[in-house]
Every structure is written in C-alpha cells, then in structure tokens.
Backbone:
C-alpha cells in the first residue's frame, strides 16, 4: 500500500471531560489543562504527538471549564500551524449545534461537529483523547490501518488486570483482529492470551475512514437507547459487523509507556516518575520534543551555601526545577518545582509537586503534597506529616497525597 500523506488525515481531540476524580485540580480547569511535569499541561503530550507526527489539521472539542484550555492553546500552539498551507488547530467548545443537548458521550461530541469533517472530507480521521500522557508517532498506526484495509483501528496497550474496570478491554486474535470488546468490566475481564495478569486496554485512539466514521455516527445518533459513546456503543457494534483491528502501541523509545491521568494518585505517580534517574517518559528526546507555552522566565537559581549557622543551604536533589524559580536557602528533594516558585530559607520540600507561582515560607516542611498555583504557604507550616490534621484543611487522595487547592488562603 502507498504511504499515507499527513494531509489526508484530520485529527479530532476529545478534551471535554470533567475530570471529577482529579478534583480539586479540576475545580477551575478542564482535565487536559491540568499542569503536568512542571512546565506542561496534560494536553501538550497529545498535541506534541500530532505536530511531531506531521499532523496539523486538528479540532479540539472542549466542554467543561474550557477557558484555561482555550487560553493555553491560543498562547502556546497557534504558531505551529500555517493556515495558508491548509494547517489549523481549532478549539471548538460545545455549542448545541445539533439538537438542544451538550455532548452526551464521546461519539456524540464528534457527531455534533460532523459538519467540520464533511467540509474537507479527508480520507481518514484520527480520534484522540486529550488527557493521556505518552509519546507516539501516529503515522505508524494510520499506515497500519491503511495497509490492512480496516474499518476502524484501535490503539491498544497492556495494563495490569486490576485496572480493567477503568478502561475498555479488547480481545484480539493472533492477527490483531478484534473479536471482543468490554467497556470497563466490573468483573471477569478478558485477559491477554498466556498472561492472566494483564489485559489489553483501548487507549481511546481510533483511526477511521472518514466516510465510515460519518455513517456510523449518523446511525448511532438515531438510536434513542444508545449512550452515543465510542467505547460503549460504536466500537462493540463494529466488532460484530466490521473489520476492527488492534494496533499494539509502542512509544518513541520502543516501549509501551502510556498513562491515563484519571485520579490524583495516578497523576502524582506519573509526575514522580519524571524525577527518577531513567524516567519511562522521555522529556529529553532530541527528535520528539514536548511543546508548550514558552514564557520568558529567567533561569532558575539556588542561593546561600550555608550562612553563619551552616544550615541555610539552597539545595535541589533528584528534582525538576523550572525557569524563574528560586530556592533561597531551602532544600528540595524528589520534587517538581514549576515556573516562578520560591522556596525560602530552612524550608524542606520532599516528594512534592509545587505548581506555578507557589511560595513556601521559611521553616516550612512539605511532604507528599501537591500545591496548586499561586498558593502562599506561611512560615513554619507543616503539610503532609499528620493525615488527621491535613484532612481538616485539604483534600487527601486514597494513597495519602495531600492536595492544596489553587489560591488557598491560610489564616
């Protein structure tokens, strides 16, 4: 089969989820707009994959609390696209263009914007989620789809069997034909052949011939009993009547690192992986950069080398520290320090995530804590050491991660 031209593909990114399990990080922003890894937003990984794959005809479908996401796309992403050359990125909020309801499911979100696909009628449509962290060349998957003449191709990745209730589970034969699909099964998930500890998970990545996609969306929209969702309705029906293939995911390093940042604990763990010696997610790959809004912050700085008492030392160990941040006589270990953060003298930060514009007062002790934007923690404050006291003031995840909401004001 001939190689597919990226201009023959339009990409739809579903970015309208509420992200309720990420609350309070999603109190004022959509899940794809939640900061990640110090200087990024979650959606930056999907958008970077698109741009690095040569895919520059993109619709971003948003719905809940979309202002932060829209602003981020305008500030950080418009410059990557040449509109005279037919490239574009359009952020399309839910607008009740068809009917009087907001998006009722993932398939309905695309259906309500079906006119956008019909305008250009490119041969193929790639559908993605905007709230996953991974690095992937999408053109490899599209080529696989074309070479095998599929009606739809699903991106799949192995995951532990105990996570099955969170995902769509795919049953595939040796030739990667999909012969079964379970949407978030509560019990008895189909495990991988020869590996009862793993399931094959749908990544929420779909490649369709555009004509097939439009036909399936129109058929689904007419069914009053449908949830109008790809995982619950469209894909299971196509498994019975169409050629559905599973594409085994490999990232740019030849591995299978993919994370659905669906909970506070999953979010925390994925961030903490970045400060390990050899993180599974490679932010430093020279040929696969992760792009974002580039703000003119000055270089980060650590000051004071002991002072008169020998303890006032600006020190950062096994951590990420972003531009504009100053560690002024404090100590940071195994943490992520976002732009324009200040850690003052004698403060101790361990295993934590400090988002943009956070200030930590003198003698504070912070451990296993996520502190959202613009929080000013007063001097001598202790967070993350006493679960009972922390629960009176902050949200705490099931695994004990403390979350301090954006703009929290301390008494």
Residues:
């Amino acid at each position: 089969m001939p190689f597919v031209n990226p201009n023959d593909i339009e990409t739809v990114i579903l970015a309208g989820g509420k992200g309720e399990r990420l609350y309070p990080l999603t109190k004022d922003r959509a899940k794809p707009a939640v900061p990640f890894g110090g200087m990024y937003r979650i959606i930056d990984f999907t958008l970077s994959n698109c741009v690095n794959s040569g895919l520059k005809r993109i619709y971003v479908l948003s719905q809940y609390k979309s202002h932060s996401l829209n602003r981020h796309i305008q500030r950080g992403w418009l410059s990557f696209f040449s509109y005279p050359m037919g490239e574009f990125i359009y952020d399309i909020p839910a607008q009740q263009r068809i009917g009087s309801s907001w998006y009722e499911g993932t398939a309905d979100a695309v259906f309500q914007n079906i006119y956008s696909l019909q305008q250009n009628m490119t041969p193929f449509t790639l559908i993605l989620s905007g709230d996953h962290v991974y690095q992937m060349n999408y053109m490899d998957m599209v080529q696989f789809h074309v070479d095998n003449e599929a009606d739809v191709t699903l991106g799949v990745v192995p995951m532990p069997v105990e996570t099955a209730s969170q995902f769509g589970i795919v049953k595939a034969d040796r030739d990667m034909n999909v012969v079964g699909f379970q949407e978030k099964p509560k019990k008895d998930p189909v495990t991988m052949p020869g590996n009862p500890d793993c399931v094959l998970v749908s990544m929420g990545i779909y490649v369709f011939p555009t004509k097939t996609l439009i036909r399936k969306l129109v058929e689904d929209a007419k069914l009053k009993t449908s949830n109008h969702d790809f995982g619950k309705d469209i894909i299971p029906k196509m498994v019975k009547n169409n050629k559905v293939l599973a594409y085994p995911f490999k990232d740019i390093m030849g591995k299978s690192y993919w994370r659905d940042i669906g909970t506070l604990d999953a979010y925390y763990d994925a961030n903490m992986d970045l400060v390990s010696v050899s993180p599974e997610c490679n932010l430093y790959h020279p040929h696969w950069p992760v792009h974002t809004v580039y703000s003119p912050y000055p270089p980060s700085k650590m000051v004071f080398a002991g002072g008169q008492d020998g303890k006032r030392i600006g020190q950062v160990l096994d951590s990420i520290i972003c531009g504009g941040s100053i560690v002024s006589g404090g100590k940071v270990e195994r943490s992520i320090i976002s732009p324009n953060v200040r850690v003052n003298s004698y403060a101790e930060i361990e295993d934590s995530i400090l988002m943009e514009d956070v200030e930590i007062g003198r003698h504070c002790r912070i451990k296993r804590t996520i502190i959202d934007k613009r929080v000013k923690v007063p001097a001598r404050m202790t967070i993350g050491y006493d679960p009972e006291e922390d629960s009176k003031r902050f949200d705490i995840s099931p695994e004990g991660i403390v979350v301090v909401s954006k703009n929290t004001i301390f008494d």
Q: What stands out?
A: Residues 152 and 208 are 5 Å apart (CA to CA). The domain at 6-273 is CATH 3.90.550.10 (Spore Coat Polysaccharide Biosynthesis Protein SpsA; Chain A).
